[in-house]
Fold this protein.
Amino acid sequence: MKSLKTTCVHAGTIRDDKTMGVNSPIYTSTAYGYLDFDEAVYPRYYNIPNTVALGEKIAALEQAERGMVFSSGMAAISSILLAFLQKGDHAIFQTGLYGGTFHFVTAELERFGIEYDIAADNDISSFKNLVRDNTRVIYIETPSNPLLKITDIRATAELAREAGLISVIDNTFASPINQVPLTMDIDISLHSATKYLGGHSDICAGAIACNEENFLKIRSMARSLGGSLNAQDVYLLERSIKTLALRVEQQNLNAGILAEKLSEHKAVGRVHYPGLPSHPDHELAKSQMTGFGGMLSFELKDVDPVEFQRKLKLISSAVSLGGLDSTICSPALTSHRHLTAEEKVREGITDPLLRLSVGVEDAEDLLEDLEQAF
C-alpha cells in the first residue's frame, strides 16, 4: 500500500473469519490458553492480537519493521530510555523538550546513575560537542513543543551512526503523515498517541516504531514497567488512525492559514510556525517534512493571555493537542509550569506565549473567533 490514506485504513486490520466484520475484533481477556503456543498471551506482554495488529499499522505508517503501543507517551519514552541506558551511560537531549520528557530526564535519570546533557540549541554542532565515550543515546523532538523549532533529522542520524549511538525522535507534532524519520535513518520514532494518532481527545496512549532488534529490547523493558494499553483503547486508537491522513491534511491547511493571518495582526508579536517563510528553520522543514503540521504558537502584544483565552468561543482553552477541536493553552501555565524561571527563559517560554492546536473546523470560523477575542 503506497497511499498513506489507504495505509491508515487497512494496514494491520484483523480480518474476522467468523463474522467477516471490517473492524478488528476486541480481545478483552486477561486469561488466555497456553498449551498450544510458544509464548503465553497476556496484555502486559504486549502480545494480544489487536495490540500486535495496531503495532503493524503504526509500523506501516512509519515504514518500520515493528511498531508497539503503550498506555501513554511517557510510558513509551521511559521504556525506550531505560532499555538503552544503564548505570554509567550518558545521553544527549536537544533543548526545547516536551515538559514531561524534560521532567523525567532531569528528575529521574540521575537516580539510575545515568548522566545526560541538554544541548544549548538544536544545531548539530552542539550535539557533536557533547558526545562522550560513554554516550549511548541521542534524543530529539522536531518540531519542538511549543516553539516549533526544527532539528536536522538527517544530520542527527548521521552523527548517531558515526558515534555508534541510538537515535530517538519524538515525532508527535509532525505525525507520520508529515514526517517519516526512519526513512532519514533515525533508529526509533515515538509518539504521544494521545495527540494526532488518537485525534479525538478521548484516548491516552503512546507508540513507537523501529527495527526488530530495537523493538525486542524496548518490549523487554516495557514488560517490566507495565505500561500496556487496555483492549478498549487499542480499539479506539486503531479506529482513530483510520482517519489520520484526512484529519492531518485539513489541520495542515488550517494552521497555514491561521499562521499567516496571525503574523499580520497588530496584537501579535512573533508567530512560530515552520510553514512561514519567516520561520528561521523554514527551508530545513521543507527538506524533511511533507506538511508543516497543525501546531503553531504566537506571542501576544499588550493583551492579557488569560483574558484572551476566556473570550474565545470556538477554540477551547485546554491542555493536550492534536484533536479534531481547536485548543489553545499557555505553556507557562501548563506543559512547562514545573520549570524554574531560569529554565523558562532558557527554553523561550514567556507569559504572553500561547500554543494553538488547530483542528478541522472551517478556517474562517477560527479566524473570526480569534479576531473577536482580540
Observations:
- Residues 45 and 176 are 25 Å apart (CA to CA).
- The chain is about 35% helix and 15% strand.
- The two ends are 46 Å apart (CA to CA).
- The chain has two domains: 4-241, 246-373.
